[in-house]
Design a protein that fits this description.
Blueprint: E1 2-7, H1 13-25, E2 29-34, H2 41-50, E3 55-60, H3 66-73, E4 78-82, H4 90-97, E5 106-107, H5 113-125, E6 130-134, H6 139-154, E7 160-162, E8 172-179, E9 191-197, H7 205-212, E10 217-218, H8 224-235, H9 238-256
Parallel strand pairs: 1-2, 1-3, 3-4, 4-5, 6-7, 6-8, 8-9, 9-10
Helix pairs in contact: 1-5, 6-8
Length: 260
């Protein structure tokens, strides 16, 4: 078992060194490489293509492009760690979490190496076999959940809808939809992906996400579709990877045929 850890700068060692040590305490080999999405793109791509790890972790501050670039280069689950800097790490947090649809990153809170290590260890050690969507009241929640449904159904993946959050199945990947400002459930040793939801939003709402994301794993605002993709990547069968690859190719063709 091994995890590949990529950070954009050696100055982030206060985050990636304890992350590495935590994984090693969990009997998981962790390899750290300092490579920048902006300054060493070719070396980064080469390293990712050679990696045999089941899960990759990417961390960076400021514009924090590294986790998103990792996701564009690999079909494996990517855990993104925003590093504090300007604006208390809010800029990095939004860069890591607000990935466009189709290329998914599982973000944690600012400097939250403990959560990144816990999530990576779960992915490495457990064999997940199913997906459960947590149905919560509200139009925003329903819209976000519909995005997850559409991806799962398009890729022929069965799922369960649960009326109340129980998180009781060890081999289940849960997708839970929480309104901005809502209390985050305290979940340990279970794979839960939180999707923040809101209909009308403004810049101040990003501060709510900054606070909420101190616990748990997160996607971008209303990104139920990306949560579904992350869940499929975590399950990680050849069939799911093949379908995700096909979906990416479809998105690529759509972009390339645009002409103005």
């Amino acid at each position: 078992m091994s995890v590949s850890i990529y950070f954009g700068s050696a100055s982030d060692k206060n985050v990636f060194l304890p992350l590495k040590k935590q994984l090693e305490r969990k009997k998981i080999k962790a390899m750290v490489k300092v490579l920048s999405a902006h300054r060493t793109p070719k070396e980064l791509e080469k390293s990712v293509k050679k990696s045999n790890s089941k899960v990759l972790i990417g961390g960076a501050g400021l514009s924090a492009a590294l986790p998103g670039v990792l996701a564009s280069l690999s079909l494996k689950p990517i855990i993104g760690v925003p590093v504090s800097g300007n604006y208390s790490g809010l800029d990095a947090l939004l860069s890591v979490h607000q990935i466009p649809p189709g290329i998914a990153v599982l973000g944690v809170g600012v400097d939250n190496w403990k959560q990144a290590a816990e999530t990576a260890a779960l992915i490495e050690k457990e064999k997940f076999s199913g997906i459960t969507l947590i149905k919560r009241k509200g139009k925003e929640n329903e819209k976000a959940m519909d995005k997850a449904r559409q991806i799962l159904e398009k890729l022929d993946m069965n799922y369960i809808v649960q009326e109340k959050p129980k998180y009781d199945e060890k081999k289940m990947v849960y997708i839970d939809f929480l309104k901005l400002g809502q209390k985050v459930p305290d979940v340990k040793n279970k794979m839960v992906l939180f999707v923040p939801v809101k209909n009308k939003n403004n810049a101040k709402d990003s501060l709510r996400l900054l606070k909420m994301s101190k616990k748990g794993n997160w996607t971008g605002l209303n990104r139920g579709d990306n949560a579904a993709l992350i869940a499929l990547q975590i399950i990680g069968t050849k069939k799911t990877f093949k379908k995700i690859k096909q979906l990416r190719l479809e998105k690529k063709k759509e972009i390339l045929k645009e002409r103005w």
